[in-house]
Amino acid sequence: MSKLGIIAGLGSLPVSIAQAARESGRPVYVMRLAGFEEPALLEFPGETIGIGQLGRIAKRLKEEKCEELVLAGIVKRPNFSSIKLDLRGASLLPKVVSAARKGDDALLRVILDYFEKQGFRVVGAEEAASDLKMTMGLVAGPAPDETQLLDMRKAAHIASEIGRLDIGQGCVVVDGLVLAVEAQEGTDGMLARLNDLDPAIKGTAANRKGVLVKRPKPIQERRIDLPTIGPATIRSAAAAGLAGIGLEESGALLVGRDKIEALCAEHGVFVYGFPAGWD
Predict the structure, then answer these.
(1) Of the candidates 213, 165, 159, the residue with the CA atom closest to the CA atom of residue 191
(2) Model pLDDT, residue 109
């Protein structure tokens, strides 16, 4: 079993991938990106390296005999004028800056293409840790009713449309009304905005209504940046008075499934997998 290279940002996703590899007996080597180091990754073999050191990242992963590579975790878009670049990073900078103007997906494709040309097989998080992949149907919490399924389907359509424009991956619909769409603030920021809305159009802890949907952008490279939820997402959805969360089957990742199930039971919030064909 070949060693897995992980280029890691913040959050529990890269930690879950490293843990899954270790449990399966697969060695890993973690490149922790400077400024985005997840403390839990310090227990795994690896090193911290600058985000602009693309040549050194590839060199070290080859020295560690990593044939497969996964990119995972939260990395905020850097100020390109201030990051330190090695020769390879500097040569790619014009292409990276140009792609960044087109959107996140274009930027990520440039990075992925670079590592593939270096001879690595880039895999998605769901391939590196298959138990994270979203399944079809009810995963946790109470089953959604007909109204909630209708909200879910509408939110799935809206999420697909904003994804087509490379805006975001999420949408909230309550009783047929679109209350929020996700942009650069992320899912938690979007859900926090719901707290400022008129209580008459949103749910409460005593009367949960509406659904958050997250799905991949139609244009996106699915090996990078699949929608991911964890316990914090359940807490945020519950605090916003939502009835549940809909995720596209095989198009999202669940991190901390046991905690997700416990929180859904505690708050009366569901997690449900809808078919990829919804549009």
Answers:
(1) 213
(2) 78
The DSSP output letter for 194 is G
Helices (H) and strands (E) in the chain, counts: 9, 13
> Does the pLDDT of residue 102 top 90, yes or no?
no
Q: State how far the Cα of 140 lies from the Cα of 272, in Å rounded to an integer.
A: 7
CA torsion, ordered 160, 161, 165, 171, to nearest 10 deg:
-70
Give CA angle at 129 (265, 152), nearest 5°.
45
What DSSP assignment string belongs to 74-109?
B-PPP-TTTS---HHHHHHHHHHHHHHHH-HHHHHH
Q: Do domains 3-128 and 133-274 have the same CATH topology?
A: no
Second-level CATH architecture of 133-274: 3-Layer(aba) Sandwich (3.40)
Tell me how many degrees the CA angle 151-156-157 measures, rounded to the nearest 5.
100
Extents of the domains making up the chain: 3-128, 133-274
> Mind listing the pLDDT tens digit for each residue in 105-163?
666 777 888 899 999 999 988 888 888 999 999 999 999 999 999 999 999 999 999 99
Torsion-angle region of residue 141: left (phi > 0), alpha (psi -120 to 50) or beta?
A: left
Q: What are the C-alpha distances in Å from 277 to residues 73, 113, 222, 242, 251? A: 27, 28, 16, 24, 11
CATH of domain 3-128: 3.40.50.20
Task: Give CA separation, 265 vs 76, 141, 243, in Å.
Answer: 33, 5, 12
